[in-house]
Amino acid sequence: xxxxxxxxxxxxxxxxxxxxxxxxxxxxxxxxxxxxxxxxxxxxxxxxxxxxxxxxxxxxxxxxxxxxxxxxxxxxxxxxxxxxxxxxxxxxxxxxxxxxxxxxxxxxxxxxxxxxxxxxxxxxxxxxxxxxxxxxxxxxxxxxxxxxxxxxxxxxxxxxxxxxxxxxxxxxxxxxxxxxxxxxxxxxxxxxxxxxxxxxxxxxxxxxxxxxxxxxxxxxxxxxxxxxxxxxxxxxxxxxxxxxxxxxxxxxxxxxxxxxxxxxxxxxxxxxxxxxxxxxxxxxxxxxxxxxxxxxxxxxxxxxxxxxxxxxxxxxxxxxxxxxxxxxxxxxxxxxxxxxxxxxxxxxxxxxxxxxxxxxxxxxxxxxxxxxxxxxxxxxxxxxxxxxxxxxxxxxxxxxxxxxxxxxxxxxxxxxxxxxxxxxxxxxxxxxxxxxxxxxxxxxxxxxxxxxxxxxxxx
Length: 459
Prior knowledge:
By secondary structure, the chain is mostly helical. It has one domain. The chain is built from 15 helices and no strands. Helix 2 runs antiparallel to helix 3, helix 3 packs across helix 8 and helix 8 crosses helix 9. The longest helix is centred in the middle third of the chain and has 74 residues. The chain is globular. The N terminus is likely disordered.
């Protein structure tokens, strides 16, 4: 399924808008990718770092069981993220393509519809999570030891999930509409505020894991206001306008069809976490779940940087695809591919050869350090190819190739990983859980390579 913008001759009316957008068509691609990726990478790194530091605070300030309890909440947060990116990723891609085709009015309608959809969807899922929270956490592997920590964290975090969706979804649209620096400031504000508040609530006010959640809620409230002020400013390329908030099926389908790929990936991550937690509890107990939490935190830090580069790539690719400038599109993809592969290879080397150092940053528990080091040294053997797979998936999303983007997004985390999780642990025990990751990464990369070669031949 392809969602492509028809190129029209409608001119962009506002001079500041024209200046922001013509750069995407005329500036050197390398410089553009640097200018758009750097703010996104900085923002993603800082956000990742405060997540890492949060978990270090929790692991060292509350204990190993708290780390395991926090790992149980990852599937729930992945579901919340899935609902957010369904709108945010879809809207940002549509905005880039429409602005590239000169359809500013349609891009404004996408903006207004995105706000209404985000509010409606987030309100529904937050209410459902609140009603069934304990049952959901038990289903995702919470034990009697870890349930109190997981429940306390999520019950305090629930009010902030809607704010989180609004912040990050519209931060992506902000970047896609030609404001990468402002998008970076949003992420920096979020990260710095949380870094200040988290230790205050966890240690000084002695609120433990509840304090980490409350710090996040306050942070998201402040940054959400900051982002929305940008779209209330009529000087922005895109801003809220009357007549754009009424839901229109044509635009809703355009948003959801593109956003479905990353949304399904995040939703699938919840299913995968369920299977992983089930196998880990069965093969290694709560300590193995805690090890997976540390592994996930480390790899997420690297993946978030890769996603930052992809976010910088997306408006350049989307705009030039909409404008029919395919050579610039190819160069942008190749530059993003080279940089992300170098990054994932470095993460792979450190994870395989120095896993104990990573584990010691999160905990002083000798058993947890040992289990984590063994798991990471196996799970990260093929992590070097992850950059290629993620960039290729995001490339197809940026040009509106929805079917391919969804397939590639699901291939690594669902299509290939689930069968491996269901078979390898039966033969190799706990090590079989860790072995599932590199095998899945390799097969998914081969498939991605075949699809991108075919796509470039068609272009």
